[in-house]
Amino acid sequence: MSATSDGPYLAAAFLCEKVLQEKDEAVSIIRITDRVTLTVPASTSPEILPPIALNLSAFVSLKSGNARGRHTIKWRTETPSGIKLPEQLLPALFEGEDRGVNLILILNIIIDQEGVYWFDVLLEEQLLTRIPLRVLYQRIGQSM
Known about the structure:
This protein is mostly beta strands. The protein has no helices and nine strands. The protein has strands spanning 9-21, 27-33, 35-41, 52-63, 69-78, 88-94, 100-111, 115-123, 126-140. The chain is elongated, with a radius of gyration of 18 Å.
């Protein structure tokens, strides 16, 4: 099954600081972001970006439309240099036209390049959307 004009439909896809999901499945999104500036003291940091762990969350919401049954959502990361990291496979069950699937991913990624990281969301093999994250590296203060 592929995404068509009959569904499933992409309702939302973004990166944020945190996603809270209540017992009644209501979702709260904290601090949506598409840009991160890694600021470090110039006196203690190298000229180029050293590997830094970055903790973000991703939220993807799909609505079934006419789609039914079990499917696989793929999450794929591409670095600024074009390297594609291993995919994550996520199960999705589409039950009814007004029902959907909310996917919450905890991203603990090592950032080692400035530029735009792309996070792709695919239904089976069909690209649904790409989410950008621009990473900037800034050394502040005067080096000694």
